[in-house]
Amino acid sequence: MAQLPAKRNLAQIERRFGDWGPGYLVDEGDAFFGSVLLRPGDEFTNHSHARHTESFLVLRGRAELWLDRSQLVELAQGDFIGCPPGVEHFFRNTADEPFEAFFVKAPGVSGDKVDAPWTPTS
Fold first, then answer.
1. What order do you get walking across the sheet with 99-106 strand by strand?
2. Is 30:107 a contact under the CB 8 Å cutoff?
3. Taking every annotated instance into account, which residue ranges of this chain make up the domain Cupin type-2 (predicted)?
4. Which CATH code, of 3.40.50.300, 3.90.180.10, 1.20.1090.10, 2.60.120.10, is assigned to 30-106?
């Protein structure tokens, strides 16, 4: 018999950098689910993924999302965007309030992040 799922809450996830950064609700199986939280002024490093698409739904706040070092996308509450494999993405919270986006990484592949150091100058 399959194991029944457990209820989880975004407010209770452990974030990579203590009180900010990504945190996972589920990081096993066919897809990974979680959220990324950026405080005002925070940046999340430029990176891509070799195999999975990482999709984001903005829950609150506003942020810049840079794609492949050339395309700036302004994100606000309710916006959705998917980053296919190989597309670099860099987040920066330029607002005076926290930014949080729910994310899905599919397929679920551990160790799929490819760091690509870069910071926009504008």
1. 21-26, 32-38, 99-106, 53-60, 80-83
2. yes
3. 36-104
4. 2.60.120.10
